[in-house]
Amino acid sequence: MALVRKSVTCLRNSIKLQHVRTFTPTLEHESLRENLLKLIEKEINPRCPQWEKEKRFPAHEVFKILGDAGYLGISKPVEYGGMGLDISYEAVAAETYSYINSGGVGMGIGIQCDIATPALVKHGSEKLKELFVRPTISGEKVACLGVSEVGGGSDVAALRTNARREGDEWVINGGKMWTTNGAQADWMCLLANTSKGDVHRNKSLFCLPMDTPGVAVHRVIDKMGMHASDTAEITFENARIPYDYLIGEEGKGFMYQMQTFQNERIYIAAGTIAAMDRCMAATIEYTSQREAFGKSILDNQYVHYKLAEFQTELECVRALYYKCIDDYIAGEDITPLATMLKLKSARLARQITDGCLQFWGGMGYTDDVIVSKMWRDLRLMSIGGGADEVMLSILCKYMGISPDMR
């Protein structure tokens, strides 16, 4: 019992439960949502069926449309073309991207605006911000993130790609896997080993132009979902970049990337929660109209009880999501909360999409309905951005119950 009390106390102290706030979307948030949704319905959704079949959306074209409207720099500094708003507005945009009729498009946008650039904005030199942040916000350049590798996905500390200094250059060798936007990207935010020793202190972040000699798209990966998103394996063979393409300080790349993961977890959860909202609404509408055995599918007690249960779970996750936003804006360490949010939203998405698809019957097994796309696309949320098991490992450390801490 003493260990249980100690573990719960450690976790509660980490997430500062005594400082409870309530985030509520304002008229400004809703205005952003409404205007972005209009753009999506006009410029993006009509072409989603084509992009799903082609298994690629034209990133430069789509990002330029979004960039011209200001949506790729919502929380980025005004001096580089951003809006300078807080993360709550970025989260509302992430929610709205779930109304794109192709999960892969929204995922690619997320990499562009909220996953590849935060470390560069926070720690990069003015030169790098002008070269890479500004054109990424405007949509002129497509960005990707180079962290996962063939031999290690969620285990960031185990990566093997290395950058060796030679005079005024870095020479990069290795490769990256599961690189969203990789086949179309103009530059990569790359994490690589720059020395030997402690795996948490021997890594650095770089801005790597993708047209650098020695950088190659080895292959585009065929996936079960997120079809319109190009996901690539990238290789580096003696790729040389200027020394000052280093982001921040040498040896601090792992720490910078861990900080960025908090943005990523909020962004992923925002889109996942909104997608579950959409899945629930579509299922309620369909089951209320579809009849079997003399009554609507929705009139069956099991169906409407199950949907009520799903909605209850969804509102609990939404409350956690809003607290993460509150605490992030307040400058608190949200690592444990964001980790819980990523874990629970991803697992709930699997339950809701699978449960709702069942109520669609045969129609749910076709590509003609949005629920089937969500079923296959949202399955990634328990894998990408840190698998569920990695989230649990992080939480165990915060609770003090990880075997290597006892």
What is the element layout, followed by pairings?
Elements: H1 2-15, H2 27-44, H3 48-54, H4 59-68, H5 87-97, H6 103-115, H7 118-123, H8 126-138, E1 143-146, E2 162-166, E3 169-180, E4 187-193, E5 203-209, E6 215-220, E7 231-242, E8 246-247, H9 253-289, E9 291-292, E10 295-296, H10 301-329, H11 335-359, H12 370-377, H13 388-399
Parallel strand pairs: 1-4
Antiparallel strand pairs: 2-3, 3-7, 4-5, 5-8, 6-7, 9-10
Helix pairs in contact: 2-5, 5-9, 6-9, 9-10, 9-11, 10-11, 11-12, 11-13
Briefly note the structural class of the backbone: alpha+beta
Question: How would you sum up the major sheet?
Answer: 4 strands, mixed
Strand content: 5-15%
Tally the helices: 13
Gross geometry: globular
Radius of gyration: 22 Å
Helix proportion range: 40-55%
Topology pattern, helix = H, strand = E? HHHHHHHHEEEEEEEEHEEHHHH
Which regions contain 5 or more consecutive residues with pLDDT less than 50?
Answer: none
- What is the residue-mean pLDDT, rounded to a whole number? 93
Spatial strand arrangement across the major sheet: 1-4-5-8
